[in-house]
Amino acid sequence: MVFKIAKLPGDGIGPEIIDQAVKVLNAIGEKYNQKFEFEFGLVGAIAIDEVGNPYPEETHNLCMNSDAVLFGAIGDSKYDNNPKSKVRPEQGLLEMRKRLQLYANIRPVRTFKTLINKSPLRSELVEGADFIVIRELTGGIYYGELRGRTEDGTKAFDTNVYSRSEIVRVTKLAFEFSAKRRRKLTAIDKANVLATSRLWRETIQEMEKDYPDIEVEHMLVDNAAMQIIQWPKKFDVLITENMFGDILSDEASVITGSMGLIPSASIGIHTSVFEPIHGSYPQAAGKDIANPLATVLSAAMLLESFNLNNEAIKVHEAVNASLKEGIVTEDIDKEKPVSTSKLGDWLAEWIVNKS
Ligand code: IPM
Ligand code: MG
Predict the structure, then answer these.
(1) Taking the model in full, what pTM does it have?
(2) 167 CA to centre of ligand 1 in angstroms
(3) pLDDT band, residue 199 (cuts 50/70/90)
């Protein structure tokens, strides 16, 4: 079978890390006799520079007509340093999520034995931590239409809006994930302050009745931020709104020792998007030093979405082998790092010839 993959490298280190994921997928194709066809699409700052739109119609059509989207990163310091800019690269990502209706973002946080000593936390706290952050992705304060500035420019406002049906569809998915794992769901909100959070809590409390064998814990987001760092092992599946999920997943990622290791899948109504959770790291762009593993592991999630489970396991084995052999980028080993492209070559070679 031929799988059509839209390749959207985006900005900063995006192109370099995507190249490595493509090498790995091609190696998997060779090993397992599958064919992956990649087609490039513009998104982000580079799309603004080239066609004046961070998510061009052509890119949207490409995504809609593909079996999956492999996405790199978005963002450019030229826009970060200019808050007055009318068009921003991040709008491309947000529009893509909205138009593909990717309402759930799955961010698995797993620790790697060989990297336990890289974690900022004591190893006995992190060893064996394994949980999934499920982040609502197309609603909340990221999309509230009522936003802007007062005329005199001295006040600004954003609005956080959620409907019951938006909460139900993503929470249903979280219950389904829980049922396949340790049956423990933590629902995170700020129900002691926010009306939207109270709707989240009320809705999830109603849904709990349909899943009697899943233990549900409701937790306030500030408390959750503390507990994720203090007892990462107690979590299994976390469900939360868009903004809390953005923040907590970055926090959770460092537990593993490097943010460069956390993949994600955004799923919903149309084509799913697979992307690392880290940003575009503009300081490293073009230097061949960025860690491609989060993108490679996102490619493994892409394979799972095609039900190519043995192929996905093989990618994980290749990543584990590279970590074990110390074939790692400088975020993990400052003394003897390999380059981004060398790591990609090593993984592809391992898959084809050594496994
Ligand atoms: C993420 C990123 C994005 C977000 C940015 C780049 C808009 O931080 O995917 O977590 O906030 O969703
Ligand atoms: Mg983020």
Answers:
(1) 0.95
(2) 20
(3) very high
CB distance 43 to ligand 1 below 6 Å: no
Q: pLDDT class for 2, splitting at 50, 70, 90?
A: very high
Question: Which of the following is catalytic: 32, 35, 172, 222?
Answer: 222
**pLDDT interval class at 39 (50, 70, 90):** very high
Cα 91 to Cα 84: distance, rounded to the nearest angstrom: 14
Domains of the chain: 1-100+289-355 (3.40.718.10), 103-269 (3.40.718.10)
Q: Give the Å distance between the CA of 242 and the centre of ligand 2.
A: 10
- Alpha-carbon distance of 198 to 203, in angstroms, equals 8
Give the confidence band of 112 by pLDDT, cuts at 50, 70, 90.
Answer: confident
- Find the helix or strand (DSSP H, E) in which 9 lies: strand 2-10
Helical pair 293-305 and 14-32, crossing angle rounded to 10 deg: 50
* Selection from 253, 9, 6 nearest residue 108 by Cα: 253
Determine the atom of ligand 1 nearest the C-alpha atom of 242: 12
Residue with tokens 């990163």, as numbered in its chain: 73
246 in catalytic set: yes
Question: DSSP assignment of 221-264, as one string?
Answer: HHHHHHHHHH-GGG-SEEEE-HHHHHHHHHHHHGGGT-GGG---
